[in-house]
Automatic annotation (TrEMBL):
InterPro entries: EF-hand-dom_pair, EF_Hand_1_Ca_BS, EF_hand_dom, Recoverin. It comes from the Eukaryota. SMART domains: EFh. Keywords: Calcium, Cell membrane, Ion channel, Ion transport, Membrane, Metal-binding, Potassium, Potassium channel, Potassium transport, Repeat, Transport, Voltage-gated channel. One of its GO terms (biological process) is regulation of potassium ion transmembrane transport. Residues 1-32 are annotated as: Disordered. It holds the Pfam family EF-hand_7. One of its GO terms (cellular component) is nucleus. GO terms for molecular function: calcium ion binding; DNA-binding transcription repressor activity, RNA polymerase II-specific; potassium channel activity; potassium channel regulator activity; RNA polymerase II cis-regulatory region sequence-specific DNA binding. This is Potassium voltage-gated channel interacting protein 3. It is found in: Cell membrane.
Length: 256
């Protein structure tokens, strides 16, 4: 597997959609357009790379994937419905499903699989806690397993969603206990897990107190009514108006 420093994201597939840090004032009135990500760009995502690593070469006959997609026990929705729910093309869904089936014959991904994936892509750090949090964000119904449809819907948001959609997904990740609020402790737990996973061999070097500093800075701006928690409304409004927060949250680009 490639080391983490080589796992970078395409500019149009970043979590917050603006790796160039364009000032928001310059983007007012600019309508978001659906990006066209190539297979190469998709492969920069850890989860996509893991899935597609076991698929047949591009251009091979994929009719079997389409047939099985509509009949497999854990995939009742079918290709057409998933194409309508996501921003993936038919061929992309076929490739993702073929790889998903090869890696997860049962049709489900469990938390241990997520931990294995991220330990392979980030061997210089400890990815266990971050993989746990990320798995819970994908596991929409909280049953301890991720179906293919949940997997690709989440990937579609992260890779091709609007800024608003990506921020809502990020809020769900930070809201560890899913009570609709982010506490300072929850935000610190997520930030620390990311820093732990990135390890001590990154450049620039990550300082031990960096997570706490990030959280303190974020909370001062996000917790507008100073009640000790951040609501989804506060989170969305602050992130979309504050260029510094948007830029700081680009750390997510290297860990999806």
């Amino acid at each position: 597997m490639q080391p983490a420093k080589e796992v970078t994201k395409a500019s149009d597939g970043s979590l917050l959609g603006d790796p160039g840090h364009t000032p928001l004032s310059k983007k007012e009135g600019v309508k978001w357009q659906r990006p066209r990500l190539s297979r190469q760009a998709l492969m920069r995502c850890c989860l996509v790379k893991w899935i597609l690593s076991s698929t047949a070469p591009q251009g091979s006959d994929s009719s079997d994937s389409e047939l099985e997609l509509s009949t497999v026990r854990h995939q009742p929705e079918g290709l057409d419905q998933l194409q309508a729910q996501t921003k993936f093309t038919k061929k992309e869904l076929q490739s993702l499903y073929r790889g998903f089936k090869n890696e997860c014959p049962t049709g489900l991904v469990d938390e241990d699989t997520f931990k294995l994936i991220y330990s392979q892509f980030f061997p210089q750090g400890d990815a266990t806690t971050y993989a746990h949090f990320l798995f819970n964000a994908f596991d929409a119904d909280g049953n301890g397993a991720i179906h293919f449809e949940d997997f690709v819907v989440g990937l579609s948001i992260l890779l091709r969603g609007t800024v608003h959609e990506k921020l809502k997904w990020a809020f769900n990740l930070y809201d560890i206990n899913k009570d609709g609020y982010i506490t300072k402790e929850e935000m610190l737990a997520i930030m620390k897990s990311i820093y732990d996973m990135m390890g001590r061999h990154t450049y620039p070097i990550l300082q031990e107190d960096a997570p706490a500093e990030h959280v303190e800075r974020f909370f001062q701006k996000m917790d507008r009514n100073k009640d000790g928690v951040v609501t989804i409304e506060e989170f969305l409004e602050t992130c979309q108006k504050d260029e510094n927060i948007m830029s700081s949250m680009q750390l997510f680009e290297n860990v999806i």
